[in-house]
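Tokens in:
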């Protein structure tokens, strides 16, 4: 598509005037609308978006939703223009720049201003959430101002780009598993690829942190995925704000989406804090911390009652629906439940909040000073406790203490830390997250060293998105440093079904050093499975452990994406796409033959189809691995009624004549698939 220029017409009613911004999705132009030359903003999406018929169709479907969003704090969408290779969203023009520009230029805001901006953003989100619309990419760049920023400004916030992340980002999510901006992504979005209203509240909490501190909580060294993974594993560093302000920020940044306040509740809380801290000055811009404190992730994620209805339930929750805890209260829990505060509207149909054990404060000490306490003790001592007995008892305590000290210092193998990193040295820990694969497989790895045993425990967590995943998976477990021999590995899984064996190139067609085949891995849709391995490696230094874990990840990713490899091994990791193949011409009133071809890094595989319809036998092992079998396959009509699909979605019949027709398909996590165009003719 030719580059857009000032003066170009956009559709029948608009004309481009001036380029005023650009971003990941496309360019924003100041434009005029006939006949009165009113000024509007036109977001021209990238040419590849307009060339994607599936994306255009999704935008057309979303148009009515976007246009229906009417709130003073939401930038109004006026129109959607689809013109040749152009796809544009026409919106109200908001002239004051973005909140992101303000923070970049001026640094942190005063507490009252930061709280006001965040509260107004939450007002806009609450209106959208009431219509079941989530933003999914809340950040300062998507918060515009109706006028130039000044301290004390209120009522100027305008949230923009509703729906753009969820529609345009769909292509990116199919290839990376991530949808959104890493520094603002909610933990459940990292874990499952899905989020909802609670994710918008989390992103607003990140933005509030940034407005107060001048930086996002988890920004620091590492890739986008390293930063994103900190949302799951780390606590936000404390900033120098009053305790009540910090408590509000922490509540919005809760790891469990069901523990976050709903948007209107959070907005009301921030407004109360605004009045309480009206005179608080802005902080200096914060610097990145030396490290991040890791959290202890709970074993059980608490659920709401309706699976999939809101964030915090079903597949939108951090473990994607696994580990549901809808049971009745156990003994000792009833009183705690009765003491819980009113949950209000935070999430719909929430039946249980995370159970926090009550902390019993010690009784206040009212005794007299130490000397007086001794005297009182002596006054009330039993008759047998004479001065002589007390003296012998004190001497015995001193001797026992001396023996304990001698044992700790002198006995070999004691637990006292050694300065040379020998037995008793502190364990190191490292985390790493891979981009989600097109099949929907997510992989995260945690390595923990045991200096006393001279081993590393590697925990690999596999997660699935829309479809169950199974079959053999490849993991590379290298030596401690480059050039070292491959270490032996003891694999195990809590379920007891996963087994590990060295990769055999003669069977898999994939040659990689230190490769292991993990068999019988089964990951439920929206769930996860952990596999552990003990590796005899002495990696006591945290930096060395980080490097080793990254080497393992990179070697695994390189092996499964090697275009020189042929064959069908490790389909969950190696499959990059699915191709829908049909005849170029078919006859009406007949069944349409359809073949689903796997697309590997080397290209489409005509010899080993995933599935053929009508089916004449059992589904292929590959289809079972990447989609759970036939249950993961669905065809749909893309010809305005010229095709009929059976009730199970697996058999397609050509009904009527159509010169150009397409068939749509879903295969597991591969959605919005389309065949090349074909024609439907009569029998003549």
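Residues out:
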């Amino acid at each position: 598509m030719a580059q857009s220029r000032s003066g170009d017409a956009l559709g029948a009613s608009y004309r481009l005037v001036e380029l005023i911004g650009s971003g990941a999705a496309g360019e924003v132009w100041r434009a005029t609308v006939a006949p009165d030359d009113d000024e509007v903003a036109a977001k021209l999406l990238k040419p590849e978006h307009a060339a994607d018929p599936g994306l255009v169709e999704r935008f057309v479907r979303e148009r009515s939703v976007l246009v229906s969003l009417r709130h003073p704090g939401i930038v109004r969408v006026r129109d959607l223009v689809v013109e040749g290779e152009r796809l544009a969203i026409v919106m109200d023009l908001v002239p004051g720049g973005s909140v992101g520009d303000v923070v970049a230029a001026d640094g942190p805001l005063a507490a009252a201003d930061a709280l006001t901006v965040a509260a107004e953003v939450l007002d806009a989100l609450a209106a959208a959430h009431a219509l079941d619309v989530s933003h999914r990419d809340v950040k300062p760049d998507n918060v515009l101002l109706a006028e130039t920023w000044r301290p004390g400004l209120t009522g100027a916030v305008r949230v923009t780009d509703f729906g753009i992340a969820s529609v345009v980002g769909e292509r990116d999510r199919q290839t990376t598993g991530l949808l959104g901006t890493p520094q603002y992504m909610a933990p459940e979005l990292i874990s499952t690829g899905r989020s909802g209203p609670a994710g918008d509240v989390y992103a607003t909490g990140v933005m509030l942190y940034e407005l107060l501190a001048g930086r996002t909580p988890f920004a620091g060294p590492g890739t986008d995925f390293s930063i994103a993974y900190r949302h799951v594993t780390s606590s936000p560093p404390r900033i120098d704000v009053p305790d009540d302000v910090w408590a509000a920020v922490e509540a919005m940044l809760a790891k469990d989406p069901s523990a976050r306040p709903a948007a209107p509740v959070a907005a009301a809380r921030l407004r109360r804090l605004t009045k309480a801290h009206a005179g608080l000055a802005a902080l200096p811009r914060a610097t990145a911390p030396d490290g991040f404190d890791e959290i202890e992730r709970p074993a059980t994620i608490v659920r709401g009652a309706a699976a999939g209805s809101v964030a915090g339930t079903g597949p939108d929750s951090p473990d994607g629906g696994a580990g549901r805890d809808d049971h009745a209260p156990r003994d000792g829990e009833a009183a705690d439940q009765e003491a819980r505060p009113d949950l209000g509207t935070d999430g719909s149909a929430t039946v249980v909040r995370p159970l926090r054990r009550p902390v019993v404060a010690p009784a206040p000490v009212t005794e007299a000073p130490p000397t007086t306490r001794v005297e009182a003790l002596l006054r009330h001592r039993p008759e047998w406790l004479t001065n002589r007995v007390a003296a012998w008892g004190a001497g015995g305590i001193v001797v026992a203490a001396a023996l304990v000290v001698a044992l700790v210092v002198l006995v070999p193998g004691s637990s006292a830390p050694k300065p040379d990193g020998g037995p008793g040295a502190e364990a190191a820990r490292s985390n790493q997250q891979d981009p989600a694969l097109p099949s929907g497989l997510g992989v995260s790895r945690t390595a923990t060293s045991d200096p006393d045993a001279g081993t590393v425990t590697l925990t690999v967590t596999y997660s699935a998105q829309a479809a169950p995943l199974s079959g053999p998976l490849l993991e590379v477990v290298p030596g401690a440093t480059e050039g070292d021999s491959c270490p032996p590995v003891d694999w195990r899984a809590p379920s007891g079904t996963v087994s590990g064996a060295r990769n055999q190139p003669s069977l898999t067609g994939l040659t990689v050093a230190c490769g292991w085949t993990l068999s019988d891995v089964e990951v439920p849709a929206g769930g996860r499975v952990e596999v552990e391995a003990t590796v005899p490696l002495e990696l006591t230094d945290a930096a060395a452990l980080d490097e080793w874990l990254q080497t393992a990840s990179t070697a695994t990713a390189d092996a499964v994406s090697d275009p020189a490899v042929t064959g069908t091994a490790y389909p969950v990791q190696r499959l990059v796409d699915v191709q829908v193949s049909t005849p170029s011409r078919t006859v009406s009133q007949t069944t349409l033959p359809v073949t689903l071809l796997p697309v590997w890094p080397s290209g489409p595989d005509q010899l080993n189809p995933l599935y053929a319809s009508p089916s004449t036998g059992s589904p292929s092992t590959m289809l079972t691995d990447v989609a759970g079998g036939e249950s993961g396959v669905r065809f749909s009509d893309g010809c305005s009624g010229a095709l009929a699909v059976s009730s199970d979605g697996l058999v397609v019949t050509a009904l009527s004549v159509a010169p150009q027709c397409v068939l749509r398909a879903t295969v597991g996590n591969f959605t919005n698939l389309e065949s090349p165009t074909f024609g439907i003719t009569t029998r003549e």
